[in-house]
Design brief:
Layout lengths: L1 E4 L2 E4 L10 H5 L2 E3 L2 E4 L2 E2 L2 H14 L8 H14 L5 E8 L17 E7 L6 H7 L1 E5 L20 H13 L3 E5 L5 E4 L3 E6 L2 E4 L9 H13 L2 E4 L4 H5 L3 E6 L3 E8 L2 E2 L7 H17 L1 E2 L2 H6 L1
Parallel strand pairs: 8-9, 8-15, 12-13
Antiparallel strand pairs: 1-2, 1-7, 3-6, 4-5, 4-6, 5-17, 6-7, 9-10, 11-12, 11-14, 14-15, 15-16
Helix pairs in contact: 6-8
The structure holds 4'-deoxy-4'-aminopyridoxal-5'-phosphate.
């Protein structure tokens, strides 16, 4: 594999980052998770803009324009001939002395784009079975401590949640905020449907997922009313349908939560209509990053 690192695409063996990098020392960095399908990337600009907003909040200066970052992402895909996969742009505050005192003077950021093959998700799960979810006891870091819209290199809160989910034997975890309202999955947003109305928590206690935004924007064409509103476990347990959304996940039905059957216990019709609409818009609006695709564009 070839990795983009600080302006160059190099073989992965040569993509080395210093132990003094503050991303390594303190998780002081930001990242994105981007998928490429058939040589095309959906909502690339939105992902890159979210990366820049995350960096801006942490006062990490990215030494590339947004267009140059998009090129670096495309270049990484092309260097690997990777038409289907996952691309991880990551920017850290860079190399500095030990101690967060050093943060003050650090300007030499580390910029990488890491490619990875994407695990194929079993569509039978999506269409016929759904996943077993668990409401986790680990609460999401509150926005007063760290704004959830910052997609930063500190995922410990979500990793603790994931560990708890695995211990319980569930396929998926749902995190609450410190007030007991539904926040999000460990790497997905959460939606529920009741009486034909789609609901999801507002982005003040959850990462404002790009798939989440797309799902909300598709609601009129799917013919469903959509609301962003605070949800509790009650709303999940009593919903007709619950699903999770994310760039890698797309949409996946959560048909059991804490051992309780949700709705019919099978992937629901509204979820499947949104999944179909999402896949359609991904096909229609993804931007080609390979030259031959450019020609046909
Ligand atoms: N929440 C968290 C914590 C995530 O890591 C992700 C994945 N980026 C999501 C939600 C879903 O966001 P998106 O649709 O932008 O992938």
């Amino acid at each position: 594999m070839f990795v983009y690192l600080n302006g160059q695409v190099v073989p992965e063996e040569e993509a080395r980052v210093s132990v003094w990098d503050h991303g390594f020392l303190y998780g002081d960095g930001v990242f994105e998770g981007i998928r490429i399908d058939d040589g095309r990337i959906f909502r690339l600009r939105e992902h890159v803009e979210r990366l820049y907003r995350s960096a801006h909040m942490l006062r990490i200066r990215i030494p590339l324009t947004i267009e140059e970052m998009e090129d670096a992402i495309g270049e990484t895909a092309r260097a690997n001939g990777m038409r289907d996969g996952y691309l991880r742009p990551i920017v850290t505050r860079g190399i500095g002395a030990l101690g967060i005192e050093a943060t003050k003077d650090m300007t030499d950021t580390t910029v990488a784009v890491i490619p990875q093959a994407r695990r194929k998700f079993d569509d039978r799960v999506r269409f016929e079975v759904g996943l077993k979810a668990k409401v986790l006891s680990v609460r999401r870091t509150p926005p007063e401590s760290l704004d959830p819209r910052i997609k930063c290199c500190n995922y410990l809160n979500h990793i603790l949640g994931k560990l708890e989910q695995w211990d319980s034997g569930a396929d998926s975890g749902i995190m609450l905020d410190i007030h007991g309202r539904v926040s999000e999955g460990t790497a997905e947003n959460v939606f529920c449907v009741r009486n034909g109305v789609l609901m999801t928590p507002p982005p003040d206690n959850t990462l404002d997922g790009i798939t989440r935004q797309t799902v909300l924007s598709l609601a009129p064409s799917v013919g469903v009313e959509a609301n962003e509103r605070a949800l509790t476990v009650y709303d999940l347990y009593t919903a007709d349908e619950v699903f999770a959304s994310g760039t890698l996940t797309e949409l996946v039905p959560l048909t059991t939560i804490d051992g309780r059957q949700i709705g019919t216990g099978r992937p629901g019709p509204v979820t499947l209509r949104f999944l179909e609409a999402l896949r359609q818009v991904m096909r229609d609006e993804a931007v080609p990053v390979f030259a031959e695709a450019d020609a046909s564009w």
